[in-house]
Amino acid sequence: MPNAGVSRADAAFLEGAEQGLLLIQRCGGCGVPRNPPAPMCGECGSVVQEYEPSPGRGRVVSWIRSRHPNRPDDPPTDVILVELEEGVRLVSNLVDVSGPGPFEDLEVVVDFRPVDGRILPVFRPAAEESPA
To answer: 55-132 sits in which CATH class?
Structure first.
C-alpha cells in the first residue's frame, strides 16, 4: 500500500505493520531505541537509522476508554500507552479484553488489525495467547 502523506521516519514502521512486524527504530550511531520514529537521534545527533523487529511484549502504563464524539453508538475503544520490553513506549488500542478494567500493568502482546484502511499494531492481553 502506498504511504502517501506519511513521513519517511514513519514509513518503515507502517510497512513493517503491513507484514505483521512491529518495527522499532534504533539509532545507527549509539544504538538507543526510540519511538516515535524520528529523523535524528536525540541522544547523539546521528541521522543513521536502523529498524529491528520487536517481540511486541510489554505492559500497559496507562489507559482510557474513548468514545467517538460523532459516532456515539459505536462501541468504545480502549486506548493504551504500552511500555515495550525494549523500553520504548507507544500509544495503541487494547483489543480482546473481557471486563471494564482497570488495565494498568496488564501484560500485553502485539497483534495486527485493519484500522482505517491500514494494518496497524494493536495489543491484546498476553494471557490470551494461544500456545504455539
So the answer is: mainly beta
